């Protein structure tokens, strides 16, 4: 791939924007120092590949950041791993952003950089990689909003049910689902899909304005919103299923908080101690990144 002026300008813009966001995130303690280094790698690759990927990533970052800060005083009462403002480290960043970065890198390597409409019939590879990025970020955003908002609403009630046993469980338990949490996961995916769609429409309009091409004969792009919504919802449910079975959940009798590992004064409630929360997030993103393009391909056959 030969570097030209446009490529250099895109890289410099991506570098500047990524550095600015990481600096702001570190200042507000949304990311730890190690999280900032990881976010820099993720942001630089994703933003250089496609600005639609970048907008989707930024939507995930800001939506999850706002959700994390929502009713923090209530969340600290039952979450033993609570951190002020989130302070996500490099492991958390990569567990949620690795596959968006991975497929963005493939996008650059095999398709170059730039914004392209989703068209599985005439532009299969770029469409596949972009949907993989969209699906992965929708999964991450959906799961984060489900966890952060689902536990924050209905503070006086306990409407959380175990996804396998379908019995009421304490807030914050791995594998717990609620009506608000499920709606929040769909909202998270919807926001990712909508932001991607808006950015793509603006990008294509600019290209048409400067006579870089016509895009009126391609497949419709609005199903991207539905794809994001569905991947956010399905990804969160997959995360809950994996967490219910492969993650340890216990109740600390002394602190009255949910614990994710065995210990003194901890009563086992559900799950096997096989995977951490980050590993579950990583697997959920992998599943949706691979399943998203195939589900989208089926969906686009109706349009």
TrEMBL record:
Main location: membrane
Organism of provenance: Brachionus calyciflorus
Cellular component per GO, a single term: membrane
Name this polypeptide is given: Transmembrane protein 19
Locations listed in the record: Membrane
Xref: InterPro entries: DUF92_TMEM19 (IPR002794)
Stated family: Belongs to the TMEM19 family.
Pfam families: DUF92
Record's keyword annotation contains Translocase: no
PANTHER family the UniProt entry points to: TRANSMEMBRANE PROTEIN 19
Keywords: Membrane, Transmembrane, Transmembrane helix
Topology term for the membrane: Multi-pass membrane protein
